[in-house]
């Protein structure tokens, strides 16, 4: 931002708060995906051969040939029709399972293509001969109303048995969601874990030099597709959080010259201040049921944590301490909040009841504890560990079993996958200040960078989509 | 003490404050553009040479490096060097009571984003409170924290970080 603009914004603040002027076109409402019965004979067979050993996952060979189509038809989802779309869907599933280091899938580009009749009656010999242990089949059918039916089947090649099947009706624009749903089905069936691929990420897109960084609110699917910028970049945007139902995003904007939290409505593209107040508000968070918003507010220089009903109303102060109390993350049952405070002299992590009572420190392992985030499973808290370098670490909710998962120079601000198995964070490069979003699994062994069109920071992973 | 500060203030207009820096950054930010400045005790609003009252340049010409104070890592206390700079600012603002300004609080990059926003707020308020204690009307002072979002020194080393841990007074015009 130019100095002139800064002065203009400051002047605007002094005069009167103006309506936000940094918003791009609205995205529109998120459409639910409908589940349907899919082609096949009778019920799925008994469940056998569940894989529970993490170390074994990546050894499973999964063949994912192109999805078949009952009839080649045009669809807005793919200019070459439903057959080509079936191949694309298999590619997306393959990328989901491979990129997260969970399996070793083989995609449609190096496999024979099954016909429609084989989807429910696989030729197992073809696949066992290729060394595949698991086989994914599926089909795409364009309905007369333009919507797509996508079926997804998982087979155990050795047992020659169907493990699971599911189908979805999606609008052509949502075709990737059917692929993520299928990847989720496969992942859940083989690991016993909850799904996470059909989810979105809000983050901050960064461009420009280190001393004039342009920071825009942006969103994307969990694999980086369907990327959208939501703000234009004239005002610095920071620290977004998706609401649990994906209808809103909380984030910080300097649009009126001061750091303030706004509630951005995804359907309408409009936004409102989280609280009408002259004081700066930072570090927004949702309660797991979406009914409360946590925020941190500085009054006369001292920052404390407050909560307010998401529908508006009276704010309630949760911390009252001369130190900096900031952030906060609810336990999945909504009863407790982990937050950071420097009341002891340096940033450490504390837990309190959701009404602010029973505050007690949980981090005692040396170094500093910042940006704690409670896992959606409830069993772990991820945080930024500051001990020389900044790294992402996890601990139990009582502060035990601390494990450092990353080794960057500055890895910051963990956010959990909806199933609590993977953590995203952002990594800042020394000197250049360039940032990128990375993810790591709980073993710390599978780490990868997420593809984003420009530099990226402050990732916030949303829940499984409705 | 007061005499000493007053002496420094007198010197401040003609020289820079860098000489008395206890914890000044090794590499200082670029100095304000040098201009021929009248060392005078009364304002002359209609003068044509030099910047207008109510501009950052006029302020910087008058107080030199004292437009900005610097902090140690994670600290927000006003030490003697900061106090001297804020005394210079207070004297300027007493002389030009129509001038309003913003104190921008900043941190270095070696902190988490939200904590740094809170820390920048603390620093800017520490500077504001000190100026108010020197008689500056709090209604003339706006405060904003940028945390680590707006560094002036771009390297990732101690010298750069020392320059970025700052509270800068910026004239509103």
For the sheet with most strands of chain B, the description reads: 4 strands, mixed
Strand content of chain B: 5-15%
Which structural class do the helices and strands of chain B define? alpha+beta
The coarse overall form of chain B would be globular
Q: How many strands of chain A?
A: 31
Major β-sheet strand ordering of chain B: 1-4-2-3
What is the CATH architecture term of the largest domain in chain A?
A: 6 Propeller
Shape of chain A: globular
Mean pLDDT of chain B: 83
Distance between the termini of chain A: 38 Å
The number of helical elements of chain A comes to 5
Query: Would you identify the regions of chain B where 5 or more consecutive residues have pLDDT less than 50?
Result: 5-22, 31-41
The number of distinct helices of chain B, counting runs of at least 4 residues, comes to 5
CATH top level class name of the largest domain in chain A = Mainly Beta
**Which topology of the largest domain in chain A does CATH recognise?**
Neuraminidase
Instruction: Tell me the major beta sheet of chain A.
Output: 7 strands, mixed
Alpha-carbon distance between the termini of chain B? 34 Å
Describe the overall structure:
The complex is a heterodimer of chains A (466) and B (173). Chain A has helices at residues 3-15, 54-57, 82-99, 124-128, 175-191, and strands at residues 34-36, 61-63, 68-69, 104-106, 134-142, 148-156, 161-170, 199-207, 214-221, 228-229, 237-242, 248-253, 260-265, 271-273, 281-286, 292-299, 302-309, 316-317, 325-330, 336-341, 348-353, 360-361, 368-374, 381-387, 389-395, 403-404, 411-416, 422-428, 435-441, 447-449, 455-464. Chain A is mainly beta and 466 residues long. Chain A has two domains: 3-30 and 198-464, TolB, C-terminal domain (Neuraminidase, 6 Propeller), CATH 2.120.10; 34-191, Rossmann fold (3-Layer(aba) Sandwich), CATH 3.40.50.10070. In chain A, the strands form seven sheets. In chain A, strands 1, 2, 3, 4, 5, 6 and 7 form a seven-stranded mixed β-sheet that branches. A four-stranded antiparallel β-sheet of chain A has the order 10-9-8-31, with no helix packed on it. In chain A, strands 11-12-13-14 form a four-stranded antiparallel β-sheet, with no helix packed on it. In chain A, a hairpin with a 6-residue loop joins strand 23 (368-374) and strand 24. The radius of gyration of chain A is 24 Å and the shape is globular. By secondary structure, chain B is an alpha+beta fold. Chain B is globular. Chain B starts with a helix and ends with a strand. Classes of the chains: A mainly beta (466), B alpha+beta (173). Chains A and B meet through helix 1 of A and helix 4 and strand 3 of B.
